[in-house]
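Case 69 in the screening queue. Each case pairs one protein sequence with one candidate compound; here the compound is zinc ion. For every case the pipeline is the same: read the inputs, emit a complex structure as tokens, and attach any notable structural observations.

Predict complex for case 69.
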Amino acid sequence: MSGARNFEKRCEQCGKLVHIQEYFLTGGLGAKEKEEASCPNCHSLLYKAMTEGGFRTSLIEENSINNKK
Ligand SMILES: [Zn+2]
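Case 69 output:
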């Protein structure tokens, strides 16, 4: 497992910060498909890319982290 994307993106619809993590399916099928990641808060589309797995999203509570940019 290498090259998994793991990043944060701000939702343009509701302004929430969302953590997006790519995961890979086991089984070695290796079929690349276009998968979408949507905002857990408002369910609008955040990100779309080719992947052999899919994307997990989770809301980042900005109150609990120090105001880093
Ligand atoms: Zn949103």
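Case 69 observations:
- DSSP finds no helices and five strands in the chain.
- The mean pLDDT is 87.
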